[in-house]
Specification:
heterodimer; A: 220 residues; mainly alpha; 8 helices; globular; B: 262 residues; Rossmann fold; 6-stranded mixed sheet; 10 strands; 24% strand
């Protein structure tokens, strides 16, 4: 069988539409996961509660100890049993968020550990506490040191969205399947998807260097 | 009223089975400069950190200008912790390790707490910051990042950050101990100016020369207790207790050894 690039080019506009949905899911899911993980991180430190910590430890080990595909199916097929009927798009975002938040929580724990206690103390000694202490002093430093692993986690999320094709989210992978099941040219169509996935992840990884320079040049 | 400017009443603090503070009481008048010396682990830093409740004592009370800063008898309510923020802003603290904020430039380091705690307008906060940075000799560094500053400059920045809140009292925890010898002078110069401006200060230090020249009173602490207290020159030249004598001898020996190395 000969590789006919015209099938790739023909599929390209629709693949790009799919890629747009992929980006939407990834950005939404990752943003929500960072918000959730930040809340968890602040709560863990300020509450210092054993119950909260054990629930958190259970959640993280559950997420890390099971395949993300199972988690996606669980949200999509099991939640409706309890009367919570989410569409595939929403279910996909919920699954991605819950999965990624566990990893982002671990990343932020590392970032927070690199902020010396003295940074908290200096702020408190000036009367800065609570929300302002975190928002203005501690979290900026936590995030700056966490840039590389966070960018890495985002590429993981971006790639994981391909699994949402299995719960009928019409993202890049699903669109590819729809096209090649009609024209019987999977190699040409998937090559197009391959290139688009690669370019998206490449741009994201490069942004790490950009972000690090943006925030770290002043510190080096 | 002046004698009641800062009242420390019966502070106790234990870490495990070590008594960091064992019934320490102290009255400070407005404008008084008090130095605290003692061997490492004697509780001198804990005393300072208990005054602004950064290390809440197990027992005892702290009063600033007739108002209760904190009392160990009850847990802090939300209202009390809000009040505590106000008290802390009035008690500037300077740390051995500077603790300047690396993600903010020099000007922002001095501006930030003014915006958040004192609720000043940005323009006012910036002009206050510029004025104070000028006083500590950092007027040429306002756009610089803290990681590009020398230790002495970082400590002067930390002092400026505290001064921007218009504190009535300064707590300085070994402000020169982490500095290279040649950088100590520039920080002491700034502190001397504060003394001359009549700032009330509690200073933990090993700079005995500085203490004897500028201190109104000197406390020698050991084992969580104030062992000797009085005018610095008198205490340093005529120590009454054996413990202080031994402490001063050790300091002399170490400073002698340092000179020998040079």
């Amino acid at each position: 069988m000969k590789f006919d690039i015209s099938y790739t080019l023909e599929a390209f506009p629709r693949l790009l539409e799919g890629a747009f949905i992929t980006l939407q899911v990834a950005i939404l899911g990752f943003t929500l996961s960072v918000l959730l993980a930040t809340t968890i991180t602040v709560a863990r430190t300020s509450l210092n509660s054993k119950i909260f910590n054990s629930i958190l430890a259970f959640y993280i080990s559950f997420i890390r100890g099971t395949p993300i595909l199972v988690q996606i199916f669980l949200v999509y097929y099991v939640l409706p049993v309890f009367g919570l009927n989410l569409g595939p798009f929403t279910a996909g975002i919920v699954a991605i968020t819950l999965n990624s938040a566990a990893f982002v929580t671990e990343i932020l724990r590392g970032g927070l550990a690199s902020v010396p206690v003295g940074q908290f103390e200096a702020a408190k000694s000036l009367g800065i506490s609570g929300y302002a202490l975190w928002r203005k002093i501690i979290l900026p430093q936590t995030f700056i040191t966490s840039i590389p692993p966070l960018v890495n986690e985002f590429t993981m999320v971006l790639k994981a969205t391909a699994l949402l094709s299995l719960i009928t989210v019409v993202e890049l992978m699903r669109v590819s399947q729809q096209i090649y099941s009609a024209n019987y040219h999977p190699v040409e169509v998937l090559s197009g998807a391959f290139v688009i996935y690669f370019l998206m992840c490449f741009v994201v990884s490069r942004s790490s260097v950009f972000l690090e320079n943006r925030f770290k040049v002043k510190r080096a | 009223m002046t004698s009641n400017f800062l009242e420390i009443k019966g502070l106790h603090k234990r870490f495990g089975n070590i008594a960091a503070l064992n019934n320490v009481s102290l009255n400070v008048s407005k404008g008084e400069v008090i130095f605290v010396i003692g061997p490492s682990g004697c509780g001198k830093s804990t005393l300072l950190r208990a005054v602004n409740w950064l290390t809440p004592p197990d027992k005892g009370e702290v009063w600033l200008e007739g108002e209760l800063v904190g009392s160990s008898s009850s847990k802090l309510t939300i209202k009390q912790s809000q009040l505590l923020n106000g008290f802390r802003a009035r008690m500037g603290m300077v740390f051995q390790q500077f603790n300047v904020w690396p993600h903010l430039n020099v000007l922002e380091n001095v501006v930030r707490a003014q915006l958040v705690v004192a609720k000043r307008k940005r323009a006012d906060a910036e002009s206050t910051a510029l004025k104070i940075l000028d006083q500590v000799g950092l007027q040429n560094k306002i756009d610089e990042w803290p990681d590009h500053l020398s230790g002495g400059q970082k400590q002067r920045l930390a002092i400026a950050r505290a001064l921007a809140m218009d504190p009535t009292l300064m707590l300085l925890d070994e402000p020169t101990s982490a500095l290279d010898p040649e950088l100590i002078g520039e920080v002491l110069t700034v502190l001397k100016r504060l003394v001359n401006n009549g700032m009330t200060m509690l200073i933990v230090t090993h700079e005995l020369g500085f203490a004897s020249e500028f201190g109104d009173r000197l406390l020698f602490m050991d084992g969580g207790e104030v062992i000797e207290e009085g005018p610095p020159k008198k205490i340093l030249t005529m120590p009454k207790t054996k413990r202080l004598k031994m402490f001063l001898e050790k300091l002399d020996v170490t400073s002698f050894k340092k000179e020998e190395k040079l």
